[in-house]
Design a protein that fits this description.
Layout (H helix, E strand, L loop, with lengths): L3 H4 L6 H12 L6 E6 L5 H13 L13 H7 L6 E4 L9 H11 L9 E6 L6 H12 L5 E8 L6 H5 L2 E4 L5 H10 L5 H10 L4 H9 L2 H18 L15 H18 L12 H10 L2 H20 L5 H17 L2
Parallel strand pairs: 1-4, 1-5, 2-3, 3-4
């Protein structure tokens, strides 16, 4: 859990946090907040900080005091009236989990203060669980608040959506992202710019990329893709896909083709592969926009198949996709 004071490090989220807390202080707060954000953008610390503020006995505009009993309990991860609901990996949030929490909400709070339910990934509720939650959202008990977090790309039930107040968390601008990464101990400005660009501006994802050396891995993979493109020999590229998780390589390839498509259409800004502009431009000059788009469609289908089809040889999916790319994009 992240104390409110640490939220100050996430400067791009502070204005939204302050607007929400000000709404409560002025008597216009909502009992159910739907927090939509890109992954790896700080939504979790944002929600934890907001939960602490809701508990705080001495609320101030834009921050919790950090000293009262409620704040201390929360910061030590022992607040009895805070309920965190998450789904196990690969599973949904069941109706039994929601019923257990709603049963506790029907009783008096143990601290005689607020009760806060934080659901990470509200889109993972089963239909039955969503319907059970809906009843509680329609008839909330006093001083009971819901923080429902979801990814911007996910769809949730319209009935849940309509009972909540929507707040969208913005991504940082480049300077904000660079400043945050520098505060995490990174110093190479060029690398930070590349890490942010290849992760769509998501700072936490950029941090992971820098820690794991993904910039060098991406460069080696895309250089090998160019050799594959020239030779039309898929065996040159196959070993460069990670056996356990080939999705990052497909993401890098998608970004390269998307930038090439933009270049082919005369769009020269907003590229993810700005650091590879020469190669992107060369690809755009050699392939038509239609061919690049066909390649992009193949890569996206490969990724969808790998993520959605269980028990299938992923090497076969990748090989089929590369053969299709040779036949339809490079040679067609």
């Amino acid at each position: 859990m992240v104390p409110t004071t640490q939220l100050a490090e996430l400067s791009w989220l502070l204005p939204t946090y302050q607007r929400i807390t000000q709404a409560f202080l002025s008597g216009h707060g909502h009992h159910a907040l739907l927090i939509r954000s890109a992954n790896d953008n700080g939504a979790e610390p944002f929600c934890f900080a907001l939960a602490q503020w809701l508990f705080c006995e001495h609320k101030q505009e834009g921050q919790a005091c950090g000293r009262c009993r409620q704040c201390q309990l929360f910061q030590h991860q022992s607040h009895p009236d805070f309920y965190l609901i998450t789904a196990e990996k690969g599973k949904k949030i069941s109706i039994e989990v929601i019923r257990e929490v709603t049963d506790k909400l029907s009783r008096h709070s143990q601290q005689q203060a607020a009760k806060v339910v934080y659901i990470q990934g509200v889109e993972l509720l089963t239909e039955a669980a969503a319907n059970a939650l809906l009843k509680t959202l329609e008839e909330p008990t006093d001083n009971c608040y819901f923080l429902l977090q979801t990814n911007v790309e996910q769809q949730i039930l319209a009935t849940i959506y309509s009972r909540c107040q929507l707040w969208a968390l913005p991504l940082p601008n480049q300077e904000q992202g660079m400043q945050w990464l520098s505060e995490q101990g990174f110093q190479q400005r060029d690398e930070m710019q590349v890490a942010l660009a290849m992760n769509y501006g998501r700072p936490f994802a950029a941090k992971i990329s820098l820690q794991q050396g993904e910039i060098a891995q991406r460069l080696a993979f895309l250089r090998q893709f160019w050799k594959f493109y020239r030779s039309k020999n898929m065996l040159l590229l196959m070993p460069y896909f990670q056996q356990e998780n080939p999705i990052p390589q497909l993401n890098w390839l998608e970004a390269l083709l998307m930038d090439a498509l933009k270049a082919s259409l005369g769009i020269h800004s907003g590229w993810q592969c700005e650091d590879l502009r020469q190669g992107v431009t060369a690809l755009a000059q050699e392939l038509s926009a239609l061919k690049i788009y066909q390649g992009l469609s193949i890569v996206r289908r490969m990724r969808t198949d790998l993520l959605s089809i269980n028990g299938v040889n992923q090497e076969l999916i990748i090989a089929d996709g590369l053969i299709e790319m040779i036949e339809q994009v490079f040679e067609g």
